[in-house]
Amino acid sequence: MEHKQEDKYHDENNKISITLSKSLNTNIKNAEELFKNCSDIVGRKIPIGKRNPLNIYILYIDGMTTRETVEFSILEKIYFKEDEALKSESTRPESLTKLLLDNVSGTVDIYETEDFDELIYAVLAGDTAIFIDGSTKGLVVATKGFDSRGVETPDNEAVIRGSKDAFTEVIRVNTALIRRRIKDTKLKMEPLNYGTRSRTDIALVYMEDIVQNGLVDQIKTRLDKYKIDAILDSGYIEQLIEDDWLSPFPQVQSTQRPDKAASAVLEGRVVILVDNSPFALIVPATFNSFFQASEDYYQRWAIMSFTRILRYIVSFFALALPGLYIALLNFHPTMIPTSLAVSLAAAREGIAFPTVVEIIMIELEFELLREAGVRLPSAIGHTIGIVGGLIVGEAAVSAKLISPMVVIIVAITAIASFAVPDYGLTTAFRLLKYFVIILSASLGLYGFIISLLLIMTHLVTLQSFDIPYLSPYVSGEINSYSDWKDALVRMPLFMQKERPIFAKRDQRRRLRVYDNKGKSKD
């Protein structure tokens, strides 16, 4: 029989259940017991005052704090500090607390607390805790200073024109990158904390006057349904809050780009930042939003409209091209032009496997090369992807295992999948591609059409935080069809006067046009 292990220091939520004591030695003993066998913990008892000193205990984690802040902003300013109030036995602890608050002037971020758990959590987060003898209050001094990756160029969402900065693993850097772009007091960054052991910092970023009523609370409600040990990346949050976990389509958008996150906030959506993750989450998300890239709004509307239409076309190729090839070649060869049919028949002469086996074999080979290229170091990965594809493909054609046309079809499918701006949507196409292949190989063109109808039916029923997933292609009348101006075709900016469906109804207007006399044309 399994017995529950008792923990006298922690409750069921892994919070420290002991209280601060007036005895400094008791507090030190409790802290040392909690951090037993932790070589990175630094704790030191220091006397304050030259005559009849009063002791304090400073606790922090080496490597997560800025040593200079601890030594110069704390120790140098208070060490051997004498104060008249310390001579009074009855008020010494309170006076020392005031003395520390007034003299630790190297940082303005210092506060006192009576919660022992809060003090220990502050230490774990990189701050410094100060315990005072004779007082049931402790001080928390902001001294975070751990090494982190600097702001770099986004590697997944590169653009020719636009900002080149990307989110990092430090949540405060990420909030600052958004704040730089939106200098408005209505921009709110609501802090949350999830993970009973990781206690990961999360920020919900939204425009207070634009976001739909209840959206922020809905996100919190979905998170509160779970109690999890740790949140190690924003991907955890994405899987916990999505509407339909069975769907292969992503219902939460992710991005590395601060400008894309800022744009989403101004549309009335909520951006979720997670500490230790360089990817921000955006909710709600629609099918159309995954085809929108940041660069679409930085260049002229005509060329970017053409590019967006091209993305929709290649997404169809990424999903359906192998299945369509199988259906036509195996079941409806009369629909293929005669000259092309003869060429395909000649190319397939001597091939040992059926067409569907050829397609699946070469598709799995490309998946293997894609995975190998990601896992290997970048210098080797690109070489493996190109050389491996050429060598293996050429060898398979020469050995009469696959036909040249299959290599071309699969290569076009792979290139088309890379042209889709969002990686999450690409993975959905990669998975559903095999579903289309199986039905097409079973029923021909009928199976191909049925597979597309089933996928479209699923998309129509899908929602993301009560927003139709295919909006504005369905339910466009909710916003008077104004969202069509930023859908398949990206109209000029001066014509996009309304915010999308995500925003409050009375906050939809985002642009007004004026004549030469300063009068509004709207």
C-alpha termini separation: 74 Å
Taken from the alpha-carbon principal axes, the silhouette is: elongated
| N-to-C SSE string, H for helix and E for strand | HEEHHEHEEHEEHHEHEEHHHHHHHEE
The total count of strands amounts to 12
Explain the overall architecture.
A 5-stranded antiparallel beta sheet has the order 1-2-4-5-3, sandwiched between helices. The protein has a 5-stranded antiparallel beta sheet with strand order 6-7-9-10-8, sandwiched between helices. A two-stranded antiparallel sheet has the order 11-12. Helix content is 41%, strand content 12%. The N and C termini lie far apart (74 Å). The chain has 15 helices and 12 strands. Helix 11 packs across helix 13. The model has no long low-confidence stretch (mean pLDDT 86). The protein has 3 domains: 118 residues, no CATH class; 115 residues, no CATH class; 168 residues, no CATH class. With 522 residues, it is α+β, with helices and mostly antiparallel strands.
Question: Topology of this protein?
Answer:
Elements lengths: L23 H11 L6 E8 L5 E8 L5 H12 L13 H12 L6 E4 L2 H9 L3 E5 L5 E4 L29 H9 L7 E8 L5 E8 L7 H10 L9 H8 L11 E3 L2 H9 L3 E5 L5 E4 L17 H31 L6 H10 L7 H21 L2 H21 L5 H15 L4 H21 L1 H17 L1 E2 L2 E2 L54
Antiparallel strand pairs: 1-2, 2-4, 3-5, 4-5, 6-7, 7-9, 8-10, 9-10, 11-12
Helix pairs in contact: 5-8, 9-13, 9-14, 9-15, 11-12, 11-13, 14-15
